[in-house]
């Protein structure tokens, strides 16, 4: 019976110990997944832009085509610059969202740790009270022992 209680307490303490790490790992994994997906989409966009430019360059056959290509090239550089700014902004938003979730997780974990510490302290205090009151009630009082000893000596 006592071994079961000990084992259950140990299991619960272990679960409480690893729970914050599990939450943190889940949060890190979710963030890594979002960042990877965003980077893959960005890479795809930039690769398509580059491939389109190479196709347009390979289609140049005369000076008029070259002039049109050069004019379109400056427009595309402006679009590319704007796209890169949007991507940087989106990455910043993802990072800020991750930071906020991380802070919330750490706050929750620290609150759980304080609650658990308070609970453990209360349990220890009640166990101490129970152990100090129970042995004195089962032992005979010292005054009765001394009075018996005094009667035998006379």
UniProtKB/TrEMBL annotation:
<feature type="domain" description="Phasin">
    <location>
        <begin position="9"/>
        <end position="107"/>
    </location>
</feature>
<feature type="compositionally biased region" description="Polar residues">
    <location>
        <begin position="107"/>
        <end position="125"/>
    </location>
</feature>
<dbReference type="InterPro" id="IPR018968">
    <property type="entry name" value="Phasin"/>
</dbReference>
<dbReference type="InterPro" id="IPR014176">
    <property type="entry name" value="Phasin_subfam-3"/>
</dbReference>
<feature type="region of interest" description="Disordered">
    <location>
        <begin position="107"/>
        <end position="154"/>
    </location>
</feature>
<feature type="compositionally biased region" description="Low complexity">
    <location>
        <begin position="127"/>
        <end position="147"/>
    </location>
</feature>
<dbReference type="Pfam" id="PF09361">
    <property type="entry name" value="Phasin_2"/>
</dbReference>
<protein>
    <submittedName>
        <fullName>Phasin family protein</fullName>
    </submittedName>
</protein>
């Amino acid at each position: 019976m006592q071994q079961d209680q000990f084992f259950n307490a140990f299991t619960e303490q272990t679960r409480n110990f690893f729970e914050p790490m599990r939450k943190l790992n889940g949060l890190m994994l979710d963030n890594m997944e979002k960042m990877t997906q965003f980077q893959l989409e960005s890479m795809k966009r930039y690769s398509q832009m580059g491939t389109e430019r190479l196709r347009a360059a390979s289609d140049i056959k005369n000076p008029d085509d070259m002039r049109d290509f050069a004019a379109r090239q400056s427009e595309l550089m402006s679009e590319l610059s704007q796209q890169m700014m949007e991507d940087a902004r989106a990455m910043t938003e993802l990072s800020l969202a991750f930071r906020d979730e991380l802070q919330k997780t750490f706050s929750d974990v620290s609150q759980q740790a304080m609650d658990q510490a308070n609970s453990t302290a209360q349990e220890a205090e009640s166990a101490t009270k129970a152990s100090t009151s129970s042995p004195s009630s089962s032992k005979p009082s010292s005054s009765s022992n001394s009075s018996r000893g005094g009667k035998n000596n006379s």
